[in-house]
Predict the 3D structure of the following.
Amino acid sequence: MDQNPPAVSKITVPAILERKLRGEKTTCLTAYDYSTARLVDEAGIEMILVGDSLAQTMLGYDSTVPVTVDEMLHHLKAVRRGVRRALLIVDLPYGAYHLSNEQGLASALRFVKEGGAEAVKLEGGRQRARLVRRIVEAQIPVMGHIGLTPQSIHTLGGYRVQGRTLDAATELLADAEALEEAGAFALVLEGIPRELAAIITRRLRIPTIGIGAGPDCDGQVLVFHDLVGLSYNPPAKFVRNYANLRATLHQALVDFRIDVREGGYPGDHESYHWTSAVREQFEKESTRPA
Ligand code: KIV
């Protein structure tokens, strides 16, 4: 098994496109700070997304809607310091591109220049095609995101699977083709039927990266906290827990509390010591009459 992926060169946008041509699956995970970025990068994951899901996982908001460009930038900078090999992508959060295409480009430029992002992701289909083209023309690679788009929660009326009917599926296919045409280098398909994801994947030259879109996509993305069992939300159907870190960490913290209370921590071997010369000198000084 590929436990330690070989040290390979930096993952770039052309490298991601070539993977689709070679029929190689691509992996993507979110990371939100230096330590998660290092873990993900060192595991050989090809793409790291500073997702706006950090609104929930890191900041405790109840949706991705409130998170700001400045909050995203703070996390992006920390992730940048931990990533050496993976392609680093950041989400344009809600409100960072909804006023105008110029605003969207300005937000993307900030993430690249100040935060070190190598690509941006944004949600929406045909209505975002012009913006995608505008950002790509400024030499910033763009990843699209269609289907269940969490920034549209108020319009969608909940986190529901999209593209279930023939009409809805036709709309999503048109969105996917428009984003490819506009220059997106990859497309996240979230919360859509497996059959539709397979058709979109076959139709596009750019890779599709699925989340709740079945196994036929060119790659898969998950939220870091879901994969390692750190999330507080009930897991969606598509989430597989590869670890149960919440339980592991909870036990570690409780053990610490008990050890301290009962005098089991720290032990002598976890303490610093004087040399015997200093100890003897101290004992001599303290027994000398004043
Ligand atoms: O913000 C996020 O984490 C995402 C992925 C789940 C695709 O957009």
